[in-house]
Here is the input.
Amino acid sequence: MRVTQEQRPGSRIGLTIVVEADQVKKTYEKTLRDLTQQVQVQGFRKGKAPRNLVVRQVGKQRVMATAIDDLINGVLPKALEEIKTKPLTQFELDSQLEELFANFSTEQEFTFSGWVEVYPEVEVSEYQGLTVSPTRFFPDPEHVDNTINHWREQRATLLPVEDRPAALGDVAVINYEGFDTEGNPLEGTSGEAFQLELQEDQFLPGFVAGIVGLSLDETKEIESQFPDDYMQESLAGTTVTFQVTLIDLKTKELPELDDEFVQSISNNDFSSVEELKQHLQTRFEREPRSSLKPIWRKRFLMPWWRMSRLICQSL
Here is the structure.
């Protein structure tokens, strides 16, 4: 692994991380093994299905996304050790999901970049006598259920849909190509067998809404616009007409919320649904105090990074 640092505006440190092809391949293979153990393929016992059938059922995009997530989380701790000052924030990726997909291959190095906040060098002014008004925090009673449902979503099985048009919540597999206002193809706006979960906030504005209602093998023109701050400068702010063909459609089947599911996601740390819920409830009840600290810090008139230790000591 190679790590390059750069000083960014403010107190941010930029990191560009290059992971060797051998490690990329090992991570992908492990991800595929883990998914094989989790996914139930019809006609096979869990964990015994051929890998190509597992990939077909869960979707190539999901396998790749999971592998990328595992790879980044696996190398980040060591990469962050190279920063002399302890980071104040979580690592934030620069790259869009589409760019990570395009850059991912088990036969080559994988490169990604991002940034963290660090303590800036400042002169401390007078701070004695400052006060702050605390904010009360009330835990969301649905937090436990939402967290568990998120884990179920991550382990959903994709089932084919053939008897109805695409709807929100489905997973669409599409071919698409983008054209400018004069009908000329635009570089970087085409894809084949691209898997997209039909959620309103996914991809570009209006793109998902245009796919909803399409039937298999149907083609439609969808107009959308790239954001002004889009990372590919040639497309930033550009209005594009996409020709989109729906080539496959799948729906998510969530795993049953039972004791077996809880044991599988927790590596047997919890034996029952009730035990997991109780653990989450206890954890979420402890979080409000720590969650409020950043809010209180920001209310001080002086830089909070110098006051943080004093605040923590007084809580």
Q: What stands out?
A: Residues 82 and 133 are 38 Å apart (CA to CA). Residues 2-117 form a domain with the Alpha-Beta Plaits fold (CATH 3.30.70.1050). The radius of gyration is 23 Å. The longest helix spans residues 273-298.
